[in-house]
TrEMBL record:
PROSITE patterns: RADICAL_SAM
Record bears the keyword Metal-binding: yes
Signal peptide: none
Cofactor(s) needed by this chain: [4Fe-4S] cluster
Protein name: TIGR01212 family radical SAM protein
């Protein structure tokens, strides 16, 4: 039976080569908020967002306790002894520098933590914050910044109330590249009024600026999000699984092999998920993507040099 790593360069493979053993990410909730919620950029957040859908179960604990519990879970599941602390919830560069430094240091002080991954928005990166993150790389740690772009189309970003445009993403990438910090860009497939061509154009634009990693998510509708109202009113029909799998296979084929895929699907807890139902678990989706690439007889990068016309 074919396995995904035969066709796709995964982040797990990359970490295995870098450290010589398995390394996993553990999620951290440091209690930060978002400028799209507190009024700085907007209120209510992105229309698809309900942070409870990726809120760690240990979030009520301190940062170090969250990391230690995450490590215990990883060791039980995979026996991996090393982890990267992933600051995921909301915007993890949106706080005074002293608070950011204190939060990162608490996670990095836990034995077995070998890296830091910081999830944030393109409009929340100052030079001082980027310099702070770069300082951890200079200490020999594996360091990543994960930028939530979702789409390169400003009309789409406005439609889902992102509170920033593609221009801010370009500026953020340029700043991070000056400090030699690798970037993993988050993209959502199936956003309102977007289809396959939008996904391909967004990928081409992201790759043209330079990126070290990608996370691909399907749009899913969760309770408590503004998008849930559109779904219940029949104004939104999420992608079916075959359509999503086909688009992801197209994206994989057009992505150079040096770019690592940190994720090819996304899930939500059953209690929160409204649609599509196939977003409850990841393995059905990953197996379908693997099967599609095997059926095509292709793999990552086979069409990486293919140009995409201007939109």
């Amino acid at each position: 039976m074919a396995v995904l790593s035969e066709f796709v360069e995964t982040f797990g493979q990359q970490l295995l080569r870098e450290f010589g053993e398995r390394v996993h990410k553990v999620t951290v909730d440091a209690g930060f908020t978002c400028p799209n919620r507190d009024g700085s950029r907007g209120r209510g957040g992105c229309t698809f967002c309900n942070n409870k859908s990726f809120h760690p179960a240990t979030a009520a604990r301190g940062i170090a306790d969250q990391v230690r519990e995450g490590m215990r879970c990883v060791r039980r599941r995979t026996r991996a002894r090393k982890v990267i602390a992933y600051f995921q919830t909301y915007t993890n560069t949106y706080a005074p520098l002293s608070r950011l430094s204190a939060a990162y240091e608490q996670a990095l002080a836990v034995p077995g933590v070998v890296g830091l991954s910081v999830g944030t928005r393109p409009d929340c990166l100052s030079e001082a914050v980027v310099a702070l993150i770069a300082s951890y790389r200079d200490r020999g740690l594996s360091v990543w910044v994960e930028l939530g772009l979702q789409s390169s189309f400003d009309e789409t970003l406005a439609r889902v109330n992102r509170g920033h445009g593609y221009g801010e993403y370009r500026e953020a990438i340029a700043l991070l590249q000056r400090y030699r910090i690798p970037v993993c860009t988050h993209l959502i497939v199936g956003l309102p009024q977007e289809g396959r061509d939008h996904a391909l154009h967004t990928l081409a634009r992201v790759l043209s600026l330079g990126v070290a990693g990608l996370k691909i998510h399907p749009l899913h509708v969760v309770r408590g999000s503004r998008l849930a109202h559109d779904f219940r009113a029949g104004r939104l029909v999420p992608l079916d699984l075959p359509t999503y799998v086909g688009i992801v296979a197209d994206l994989v084929e057009r992505t150079p092999r040096h770019v690592a895929f940190h994720r090819l699907t996304g899930t939500a807890k059953a209690a929160l998920l409204l649609a599509p139902d196939w977003c409850i678990g990841k393995w059905r989706v990953l197996n379908a993507i693997t099967a599609e690439l095997a059926r095509r007889g292709t793999r990552q990068g086979v069409f990486a040099c293919e140009g995409v016309s201007s939109w």
